[in-house]
Amino acid sequence: MSDPFDGYERLRARGRVAYLEERQMWSVTGFAEASECLRHHDAFSSAIGAGGSGLGDSMIFRDPPEHTRLRGVVSKAFTPRAIAELEDRITEIALGFLDRIGDEPFDLVTEFAIPFPITVIAEMLGVDPADRLDFRRWSSAIVGRTFMDPVQLRHEFGDYFGRVLDERRREPRDDLISGLVAANEHDDMTQTELMDAVALLLVAGNETTTNLVSLATLQFARFRDQREIVLGDPSRLTNAIEEVLRYDGPVHMIPPRMVQQETRLGDATIPAGGFVFVHIGAANRDPEQFERPSEFDVRRANAASHIGFGAGIHFCLGAPLARLEGRVAMNALLEKFPNYELAKPDEPPAFQPNMFLRTLERLELLPLES
């Protein structure tokens, strides 16, 4: 888990689209093939159920027309324009956390990368500050960062946000949940679907950013020459974030897609009913798409062509927020600690054993200002 890229290359050597008999699944590691699979929802269905993910039957596990109906409501309340208007407040939140850090070594994950996006999405949703510890606990359980009984998780989460949704119907506020209620004026979504949408927004606007900030900090520590490029020209930070998403992004695999009818993908013919796993982390290092794919290069011209946020109708709704928070967080970190170093450079980074999300458990830094 700490370094899966050799494994990805071994998979690709078996075929850019390969059947893994030992897993009874199809593995997709080629960029073009992964992009095709993600974009053709009619052939590769997402409607396989959420299992124990905690996301219920949210839109990521639906096909059209249900997906169209659900995403249509949520997208009205979660627009890129509305997110862009939050930049000043997001910057204030980031600086607030960094200002608490002294001159002793600190864990970036627990002291910044986790609480920063939690605070942002909690404010956006309109969560009471006193309840944010529960908010963080539920978010961690939904993505498997920590364990929580699925029945208890659904009960606690549903009870809390059920009350909040009812409150916003009676007394709307200037927050995302009120926006969801307003966008659902024609009752296109049931109460359960609204709560599933809130759970998805919680993950989309939180866990992805936690991983993005952690991973960006790690790469800038590993590749000091690339950090110097950004410090010398901060306008390159936007592309640098895209390169982080390509090189080793927050999401390495998505839930499986099921083939609806016999389908040709790349050089393979996949029978109906076959399960396809798209290895985003492998596709984003495909040498047919990216020159020198194993090099981290903040000046890479096509860095933004990655599929770190998916593609097609399931393209991540939280992508604009994650990109904005990633840029703001790294800008704030580099301004405050431009010369930070890894506190334990000889120790390999500690990653959680999660095939889907690229999650650092901790990242200890020396906060050097100059």
Give helix and strand order, one letter per element, not per position.
HEEHEHHHEHHHHHHHHHEEEEHHEEEE
Average of pLDDT: 90
Distance between the termini: 34 Å
Number of helical runs? 16
Walkthrough of the structure:
The protein has 370 residues and is of the alpha+beta class. The chain has helices at 5-13, 31-39, 66-77, 80-84, 87-98, 108-113, 115-125, 132-142, 150-170, 176-183, 191-204, 207-222, 224-232, 237-248, 280-283, 319-336; strands at residues 17-20, 25-28, 44-45, 106-107, 257-259, 263-265, 268-270, 275-278, 341-342, 350-351, 360-362, 364-366. The chain has a five-stranded mixed beta sheet with strand order 1-2-8-5-3. It is globular.
Keywords:
about 375 residues, Cytochrome p450
Write a short abstract of this structure.
48% of the residues lie in helices and 9% in strands.
Topology (elements, then pairings):
Elements: H1 5-13, E1 17-20, E2 25-28, H2 31-39, E3 44-45, H3 66-77, H4 80-84, H5 87-98, E4 106-107, H6 108-113, H7 115-125, H8 132-142, H9 150-170, H10 176-183, H11 191-204, H12 207-222, H13 224-232, H14 237-248, E5 257-259, E6 263-265, E7 268-270, E8 275-278, H15 280-283, H16 319-336, E9 341-342, E10 350-351, E11 360-362, E12 364-366
Parallel strand pairs: 2-8
Antiparallel strand pairs: 1-2, 3-5, 4-12, 5-8, 6-7, 9-12, 10-11
Helix pairs in contact: 3-10, 5-7, 5-16, 9-10, 9-11, 12-13, 12-14, 12-16, 14-16
